[in-house]
Amino acid sequence: MAKLYFHYSTMNAGKSTVLLQASHNYRERGMQTYLLTAQFDNRAGEGRIASRIGIGEAADTFSDSDDLFEKLAARRDAGDYACAFIDEAQFLTKAQVWQLARAVDDLNVPVMCYGLRVDFQGELFAGSAALLALADEMREVRTICHCGRKATMVVRRGADGLATHEGAQVMIGGNETYVSLCRRHWRAEMGDPSAH
Question: 119: which residues sit within 8 A by CB, 6+ positions away?
């Protein structure tokens, strides 16, 4: 039975590596996969999912205006695949997450989404919020804070090296400006939100 999966974590936890490995496992067993990533995230090149450890694969892309049910159905018509993999799933719209859920239900295709849960201000991304509500299964890809605790938050550092408190939710590139932290250390850098 097909399911909608959400694999989530903070920055630099290895989500793309896990995605590429899972896709490789399918293909190694003779099953095709369908890879998609956000169109505007071209850090690794247009239509490419790449990991910081140096592995990568060509992928189709999605933008806010794409109907992902139609995209998955059209790809199936062009050639069957055993599983769809979505990288940068935090950039999905709520409607697109519903479209993926429909693809799981009506096309009987498993869909594995990989993305960030929260932004640098501790707020859910729209795609992540919808996936937390609709996914059949959720799995955390873990990484650690400098203190050794599990990192669940991320800060964005400015040119001065201090945590940024304002700015656009999305900033493509600049991985070196993001640091994954446990909630305690995130609060120390961002200020305690419960005190406001």
Answer: 125, 154, 169
- Residue ranges of the annotated binding site are 9-16, 87-90, 145, 147, 170-173, 178, 182, 185
Pairing type for strands 111-116 and 4-9 reads parallel
Residue pLDDT, tens place only, 101-141 = 999 999 999 999 999 998 888 889 999 999 999 999 999 98
For residue 57, indicate whether it is catalytic.
no
CA separation for the pair 112, 96 (Å, rounded): 14
Q: Which amino acid is at 195?
A: A
- The model's pLDDT over 85-102, given as tens digits with 9 standing for 90+, comes to 999 999 999 999 999 999
Query: For residue 128, which of 1, 51, 38 has the smallest C-alpha distance?
Result: 38
CB 13 within 8 A of CB 141: yes
Catalytic residue among 88, 137, 140, 176: 88
Annotated binding site for substrate: 170-173, 178
Q: Which residues are annotated as a binding site for ATP?
A: 9-16, 87-90
Whether residue 70 contacts residue 104, with contact meaning beta carbons closer than 8 Å, is answered with: no
CATH topology assigned to domain 4-142: Rossmann fold (3.40.50)
